[in-house]
Amino acid sequence: MAAAGLSLHIGLNTVDPARYDGWDGRLAACENDAHDMAALARAAGFSDTVLLGADGTVENVTTALRAAADRLRDGDALLLTYSGHGGQVPDVTGADDEPDALDETLVLYDRQFLDDELNRELARCADGVRILVLLDCCHSGSGIEVRELPTPEALDAQFGTADPAGIEAASRLMPLARQGAIYQRDKDFFQGLQRELRTGDGRPADAVLISACQDNQLASDGRVNGAFTGTLLDVWDRGAFRGDHRAFHRAILRRMPANQSPNLHVSGHPPEAFLAERPFTV
What we know:
Elements: E1 5-11, H1 30-44, E2 47-52, H2 58-71, E3 77-83, E4 86-90, E5 102-107, E6 112-114, H3 115-122, E7 130-136, H4 152-159, H5 164-170, H6 176-198, E8 207-211, H7 227-236, H8 245-255, E9 263-267, H9 272-275
């Protein structure tokens, strides 16, 4: 039986200001990223689902990932792409999986989605499912979050300004002051969720992550695509690329500026044969 491929593409140009204390998180290119990655996936043989804007809720994302996990079997493929803001919340549960005591988040339409929540959903997949995750957001390097922002000189080189308002407009960073205020508002919820997640087996999903930047860098938005997604599409060249996942990452990295260096992170124990495959192979 031929392998099956399912893909989920999430793009959020805005979030719900009613859930983020009046902040709408406006970006320019995230929905374009999702559409373009879905087109790439379809051309490669995946059956795609696209969640944009108000559809990019925790419930919808979780439902789509669980439906994929229920369907996929050993040898099948799952592709997840996300373009939007990245954030982080304190982890005070005493767990030792976050050396900086922070959980990385995807800033979904209705609330932040913890990295451990994403891991839990991906870990539902059967053994042998080939999982590739592409994150075009800040704080996306490896699940070990940003401990400090780049220097003012580095920010000015990347965004043409070191002014926080200008950086927030040009990057996919959820403003730090906003992160802190929303966490204080919702900390009982997040601490309860973190404790709940710690009661599971904690098994890391077997997945390959290629992310937009290193842990101490920010991801740039753009007019058409995010800097990372646009470069990825150029490297893929409508399917002309023929290398494996590591070569794909290296090729993207070579085309990106030094102040935004995409990262390759291996979670759990995906088969070495998967890493040696051409990306987006069903």
